[in-house]
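LOG
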Amino acid sequence: MSSARQFDDQQLPRSATVAELPPRANNHLQQCRDDDDEQGQDPEDDDPHSHRRRPLPFRQRMKHFTWAWYTVTMSTGGLSVLIFNQPYNFPGLRGIGFAVYITNIVLFAAITAGLVARFALFPGTLKQSATHPRESFFIPTLLLSLATLITSTERYVVSSDNDPKVMVAVQWSFWAYMVVSTIVAVAQYAFVFSRHRLRLEHTMPTWILPIFPVMLTGTIASVIADTQPDIAAVPIIVAGLTCQGLGLSVAGMMYALMAGRLFSAGLPDREHRPGLFMCVGPPAFTALALVGMGNGLPDGLDANFDGVTDALMLRTMSVVAAVFLWALSFWWFGVAAMAVVMAPPRYFHLGWWASVFPNSGFTLATIALGRAMRCQPILDVATGMSAVVAVTYVFVLCHLIRAVWIQDIMYPGRDEDVEDT
């Protein structure tokens, strides 16, 4: 097999020719192709960008089954929650949402089994994936998938069951998720700071991912607080607000890096521009969480014990803050959409799912604001946004199936572990 490798995958298109590569990459790639010529091989047979690349057996392709596959389940889970929260209902809609919820559970189990198979078949790949400067950033998508499973389970299963044991199980799942996501965020960023030297001009939206699960703690709190007794709901909301603040603050620092990269180096390569939609998520999910946690406060809350009910004031403040954050999400959505329209990607990447999950949060935040302000036009717009998200999900899913079939992904040089191939 050719030792030709893709250089600087964050910047170069998959279809880059030798002339388009920087001198260092150009010299190395040419040397590898010369070696192939000496061995009597056609270098294009192993070029991951060539249509003549040789087919690989499925077992060998499993080596490139990466953590980024969890973007499928976090998007599917986000869609199931979005279906449940639709402002307009019709017969069968809840059944469709439940079917998507069950499908997400099956997909989550299948992807987990696939990763276990990869690590078992190819010893050492677990450590490589956890330390890889690109693939490791997708490890938190596992936690994001779990967050969507918790919230969708609350919507489709727990909300219709007042069993105290079920409520306690939900509480424990929330606290466990909060602890694990916080540990992962601290540990992963500390490791990146100590082991990798990432350049500003290579800043990518995936750098936000390690803090994203912490942020979703607030979203989970906003969903489960309504069904919890007051004595349990208030601590959950306080913890959720704390984690939401931490997540948004760190995401703000990542935004500063992203803006610096956009000003100094321009937009990412066309193949990675759908990832810009990831920037829509943090403010959108924070807006959703603030409105939800405000609604989850006990009606008789008197924080200062002065006889004045504080719940109404806090709910009003949460809506005002959510409007500000929604506007930031809208701006990032416009930037990402324009970037993709100007240069659509040629090849499928699992990063395409960034156009689904963050935009699901954006749409959910729109629905929450429409309900909080009792504004029918906003709910009408949110319904249209929901339809767009559903169509986008089907579009990306169809391209995913096609990409697996024609070996556009799960192939050396075409996945998030590209530097290891």
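LOG (cont.) second protein
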Amino acid sequence: MNKKLKYAAAAITVFGAAIYLNNTNHLAAHQQSKPVLLAHRGIAQRFDERELKNDTCTAARMLPSTHQYLENTIESMRASFAAGADVIELDVHPTTDGEFAVFHDWTVDCRTDGRGVTREHSMAYLKKLDIGHGYTADGGKTFPFRGKGIGLMPTLAEVLAAFPQQRLLINVKSRDASEGEKLAAVLDKLPAERRAQIMVYGGDEPVEIVRQRLPDVRTISRATIKSCLLGYIGYGWSGVVPKACHHAMVMLPINVAPWLWGWPDRFLSRMKAANSEVFALGPYQGGEFSSGIDTPEQFAQLPQNYSGGIWTNEIEAIAPLVGK
């Protein structure tokens, strides 16, 4: 019996050593490159993020403004690239006249002088709206951007034309599979080398359609990111990368990262081998995946010489920290 226990103990020791050697970061090659910076919504007006709900009007709780840019506009995107962004995230909604409007909210009531569900309007109507109409930092006493955002809501086609070579992340705001069909049709008209610079994330159903129609476009959805990360935590010690992590944009909350086998360098290498790209986010707390690495304190939580991607709402603050 003692001999059997010794053999079992030896086997467990060897197995544990194999897992350690297969996952220790000390033996992993470090990628000597600067982080890839992703600017969420471009340069945007920040708002009080406490106790947010799905229907919270964030424009009505704007923080005191430090710049003149409005999110999801071509001017904002251009300024973001100039500030050091490598990728710009933008939000889209299909319109009744066959376009894609670049706008965050499900309705236009909060930010603009219009009314109704964004996707139930024509682009011709949306172009007439003032997208700066609803911004206020003092409870409605003043509206510093009112009248300054008329006609600034762009179409996806205009963004693609304005930035023909830059990297973009397109956020599909619905769970309507037909929206995935429409977006895939738009992207399918682009040259393959241009599609390689575009990623898509959002609702499970439309993103799955894009993934099926355009396998050369990196995608991620709420369902697939959970499948990817939970699968990797479960059996990534073996070196096997879950299927959901392949050819994907892996969104990684900073408080989840330490649970991943081989974090950071071995994990990043495995994702790269799976043709995926990793972007570190702010801590996940059960809400939307839009919290970013936005302060020097959050940036300091990343591993030293971290070489993966960084999702940020404050490109102006984070870019200097990585030398961009």
